[in-house]
Write a structure and sequence with these properties.
- It comes from Paenibacillus taihuensis.
- This is ABC-type glycerol-3-phosphate transport system substrate-binding protein.
- Keywords: Signal.
- InterPro entries: Bact_solute-bd_prot1 (IPR050490), SBP (IPR006059).
- The chain is α/β, with parallel strands linked by helices and about 475 residues long.
- It folds into two domains: about 210 residues, Periplasmic binding protein-like II (D-Maltodextrin-Binding Protein, domain 2), CATH 3.40.190.10; about 210 residues, 3-Layer(aba) Sandwich (D-Maltodextrin-Binding Protein, domain 2).
- Helices cover about 40% and strands about 15% of the residues.
- The strands form five sheets. Strands 3, 6, 13 and 14 form a four-stranded mixed beta sheet that branches. A four-stranded mixed beta sheet has the order 8-11-7-12. It has a two-stranded parallel sheet with strand order 1-2.
- The N terminus is likely disordered.
Length: about 475
């Protein structure tokens, strides 16, 4: 879910992704951040090539533009035969299909992690399989990093940042209540039991906190939809159909209703927003919340929680028998209309220009200096694209190990568990879906007599007729 309170940063490297699941505003962008070397350090072709790249910051964003311009300058110094033309257009689903049909989309495009299936099946993204395979650093990247843009054995995007949602909990509240810390594989029933034991109305403590208004409410609830075995959409040929009013969808909505009215474990303000929830968690008024990647750092920096007071655990296992959690982030793709071999290579070189050990270490050292100057720590639970035995990862870990007071490291086992639980966001009109379903979440959390089945049927019908049918007709 592309919401304002979740900022998805580039994996490991320090450059922020202005567009993705972090900034949940419906626009994804390339950044003046990570890109990589050519697939070899050898001969560089000298045929003149021009590429257009999306995500150029607005004129008012002077710092962003300066960083992007610096990236262009550095790239063109290495590849003097390539001219890079930045485009201020940033990805959004409503315009992308039109631009592709009119052949006016940039050559390199930053997209949400949720768009993988659409851009692949509709032939909008170039097949990058061979380019990635021949790239000199390909063996240092984990296969999991490409999962959301890999279909039928082919890769259509390059990862630029990823998160998998999880449960963050306050260990101090668990200890005071005498409740064991949750472990991977815990079930819905165990989640409920844990939340009940942690809830203490006399002390103003809620076992679980969740936002109840705006698109973020549906984004968080979708974790439980997937855990129940449901999906937001299904494909029938090239048409997309609403699927979230299934038995699993109703069950997930009933689960939310029960958390509120039957078990009374949620925050008293049912319509709290993300900032409210984070504040209450940081102040010890909520024991567990859903979490993407960056909020844990905020808890330690803004609310002065110590690293050993914060726990992270995968989402619970639902009726489907699986732990499922929203996996989001950003990828960069190459326009499928780019067929010239030299231009295709130049576009890939742009995407991967800074993806080297030297650049990764340089960026992390800059991050370290900035954090120390502010007296802050870095505890993000970002998904790692690198294999642990890779030179890039080893270079980064040397910095982390040498600065334990600045970098909080999470166990490798946790990352493996999160990757295994990752579920992509809705591939078609995700933002519209979040907005539509938010009204249902708000109603269920505000009305004890709400009927989950009736609500789901109605919102699914509305989403189909007002959003998906027009999309299918394009």
């Amino acid at each position: 879910m592309k919401k304002s309170f979740l900022i998805v940063l580039t994996l490991i490297l320090s450059i922020s992704l202005a567009a993705c699941s972090g900034n949940k505003n419906g626009n994804a962008s390339n950044t003046g951040g990570n890109t990589s070397n050519n697939n070899s350090e050898g001969e560089v072709k000298q045929e003149p090539v021009t590429i257009t790249v999306s995500g150029y910051p607005a004129e008012t964003d002077k710092t962003g533009r300066a960083n992007f311009d610096a990236r262009i300058k550095a790239f063109q110094e290495k590849y003097p035969n390539v001219t890079v033309k930045p485009d201020t257009w940033q990805y959004n689903a409503q315009e992308f299909a039109v631009k592709m049909a009119g052949n006016s989309a940039p050559d390199v495009i930053g997209v949400f992690a949720s768009e993988g299936r659409i851009v692949a099946e509709r032939g909008w993204a170039a097949d990058l399989t061979e380019l990635i395979r021949n790239w000199q650093y390909s063996d240092q990247y984990s296969d999991d990093a490409f999962k959301l843009f890999e279909f039928n054995g082919k890769r259509y995007g390059f990862p630029k940042g990823s998160y998998v949602m999880n449960i963050m909990y306050n260990k101090a509240l668990f200890d005071k209540a005498g409740v064991p810390y949750p472990k991977a594989g815990w079930t819905w029933d165990q989640f409920i039991d844990t939340a009940k034991k942690l809830t203490n109305r006399e002390k103003g403590i809620s076992g679980f906190g969740t936002t109840g208004k705006g698109g973020a409410a549906a984004w968080i609830w979708s974790n439980f939809l997937y855990q129940a075995g449901g999906e937001v959409e299904k494909f029938e040929g090239k048409n997309v159909k609403a699927a979230f009013d299934s038995d699993a969808g109703v069950k997930a909505l009933q689960f939310y209703k029960d958390l509120r009215w039957k078990y009374d474990v949620l925050n008293p303000n049912a319509l709290a927003d993300g900032a409210d929830i984070n504040t209450d968690f940081g102040n010890g008024k909520i024991a567990m919340i859903t979490h993407g990647d960056w909020v844990v750092s905020m808890m330690m920096n803004q609310f002065k929680m110590k690293p050993d007071q914060v726990g992270i655990v995968p989402m619970p296992v639902g009726p489907s028998g699986k732990s499922q959690a929203v996996q989001g982030g950003s990828f960069e793709i190459i326009n499928a209309n780019v067929t010239d071999k030299d231009k295709l290579q130049a576009a890939f070189d742009w995407i991967t220009f800074l993806e080297t050990k030297d650049e990764a270490v340089k960026n992390e050292q800059e991050r370290l200096a900035e954090l120390k100057s502010k007296g802050e720590v870095w505890a993000h639970v970002m998904m790692r694209p690198y294999k642990e035995n890779s030179e890039i990862y080893k270079g980064l870990k040397e910095i982390w190990d040498a600065n334990p007071g600045t970098f909080v490291q999470w166990p490798t086992e946790l990352y493996n568990q999160l990757y295994a639980s990752g579920h992509p966001e809705p591939p078609v009109e995700a933002q519209a879906w979040y907005t539509d379903v938010a009204s249902v979440i708000e109603f269920v959390l505000s009305n004890k007599n709400a009927n989950p089945e009736e609500l789901m049927k109605k919102v699914a019908n509305d989403f189909q007729t007002q959003v998906l049918d027009p999309y299918n007709s394009k």
